[in-house]
């Protein structure tokens, strides 16, 4: 269920042309994907059973997939946001012409597109029956309340910070930096990876009879100022704060993962603690990267003085609310890989195993974070 909940959470924050069609379309995706349990959903973020069409270029890539009714070319989406956008592009094509004159109610919509979508009799009724479940998922997605567990050890709060977002620079945070070899923006990947990391932290904690509160600085495509990202961790009394970014370079041969901590010379009051935490995160990150790519390059653990800007404002103690706090929030800043490299793009962004690979890498990072909290 974690995957469909993640999709619902993203969808609840997206703006679409007719927002009241969210529950009927999510209901359709619940049906098509077996509540996110189909391989098409798990491996390719295709929750709609969308077959490949040339008009989908730029929104999806073509993937050969063996469905119950035989092998065919299907759409593969790089992110959940990409699927949502792609679904509406798919509907805006010729076979569905006229759909916008059939949107008085969600039921009208599915009764119009249903018979074009599939010859299955009673399809629209099946979708309509799932609308209450979809509406509940959308409401929960917006709230994202952690499940309580009796007798569990509480690990406290971790704040994850997906880099960038939105369309404009806000408080020193640029909307996007790197663009992958296959054309996917860094901001989309940081959010997807952080949501996977959150779900891995929760899943692993649950298996170990621990509870953990994981909050993201953003769960939609919006930007948040640099100081506000850190202040969000402080306001949530986070024990740990992990920023996630991807690197890019004009030299497409460059690869490797690196992790930064705030240097004492940049005013960090507890450099040794942050360095130890960031180091543990980096060891987990490299273990994950090596698991999917034995040749993965380790660019090392570094102080933020080694970045292009010579300082990472998001790790500042003053913004994190650490001044005078007996147990400061520790921070680490991951530059996971160079997505401008073709091989890395295949591994983490667009290749057939990209989504399982993301999960492997984030599971290793989650393990390192949990070990640090226990
Ligand atoms: Zn970045």
TrEMBL record:
Pfam families: Amidase_3 (PF01520), Glucosaminidase (PF01832)
Broad EC category: hydrolase
Domain MurNAc-LAA residue range list: 230-370
Organism lineage string: Bacteria, Pseudomonadati, Pseudomonadota, Alphaproteobacteria, Sphingomonadales
Keyword Oxidoreductase: no
Transmembrane segments: none
Protein name according to UniProt: N-acetylmuramoyl-L-alanine amidase
InterPro entries: MGlyc_endo_b_GlcNAc-like_dom, MurNAc-LAA_cat, N-acetylmuramoyl_amidase_3
EC number(s) stated in the UniProt entry for this protein: 3.5.1.28
Domain of life: Bacteria
Hydrolase among keywords: yes
GO terms assigned for molecular function: N-acetylmuramoyl-L-alanine amidase activity
Catalytic activity: Hydrolyzes the link between N-acetylmuramoyl residues and L-amino acid residues in certain cell-wall glycopeptides
Swiss-Prot/TrEMBL keywords: Hydrolase
């Amino acid at each position: 269920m974690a995957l469909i909940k993640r999709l619902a959470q993203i969808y609840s924050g997206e703006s679409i042309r007719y927002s009241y069609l969210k529950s009927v379309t999510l209901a359709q995706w619940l049906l098509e994907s077996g509540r996110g349990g189909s391989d098409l959903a798990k491996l390719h973020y295709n929750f709609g059973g969308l077959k490949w069409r040339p008009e989908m270029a730029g929104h999806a890539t073509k993937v050969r997939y063996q469905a119950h009714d035989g092998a065919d070319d299907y759409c593969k989406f790089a992110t959940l946001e990409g699927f949502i956008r792609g679904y509406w592009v798919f509907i805006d094509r010729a076979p569905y012409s006229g759909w916008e004159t059939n949107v008085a109610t969600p039921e009208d919509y599915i009764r119009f597109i249903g018979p074009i979508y599939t010859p299955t009799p009673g399809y629209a009724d099946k979708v309509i029956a799932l609308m209450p479940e979809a509406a509940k998922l959308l409401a929960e997605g917006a709230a994202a309340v952690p499940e309580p567990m009796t007798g569990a050890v509480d690990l406290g709060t971790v704040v994850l910070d997906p880099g960038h977002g939105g369309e404009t620079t806000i408080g020193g945070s640029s909307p996007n930096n790197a663009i992958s070899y296959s054309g996917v923006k860094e901001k989309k990947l940081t959010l997807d990876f952080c949501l996977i990391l959150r779900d891995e932290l929760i899943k692993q904690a649950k298996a170990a009879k621990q509870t953990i509160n994981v909050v993201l600085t953003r769960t939609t495509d919006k930007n948040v100022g640099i100081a506000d990202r850190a202040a969000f961790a402080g306001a949530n009394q986070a024990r740990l704060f992990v920023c996630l970014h991807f690197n890019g370079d004009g030299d497409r041969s460059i690869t490797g993962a690196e992790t930064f901590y705030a240097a004492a010379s940049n005013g960090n009051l507890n450099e040794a603690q942050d360095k130890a935490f960031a180091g543990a995160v980096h060891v987990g990150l490299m273990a994950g990267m090596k698991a999917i790519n034995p040749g993965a390059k380790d660019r090392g653990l570094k102080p933020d003085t080694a970045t292009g800007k010579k300082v990472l404002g998001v790790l500042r103690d003053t913004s994190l609310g650490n001044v005078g706090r007996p147990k400061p929030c520790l921070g680490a800043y991951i530059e996971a890989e160079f997505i401008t490299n073709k091989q890395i793009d295949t591994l983490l962004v667009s290749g057939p195993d990209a989504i399982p690979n993301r999960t492997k890498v984030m599971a290793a990072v989650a393990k390192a974070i949990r070990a640090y909290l226990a």
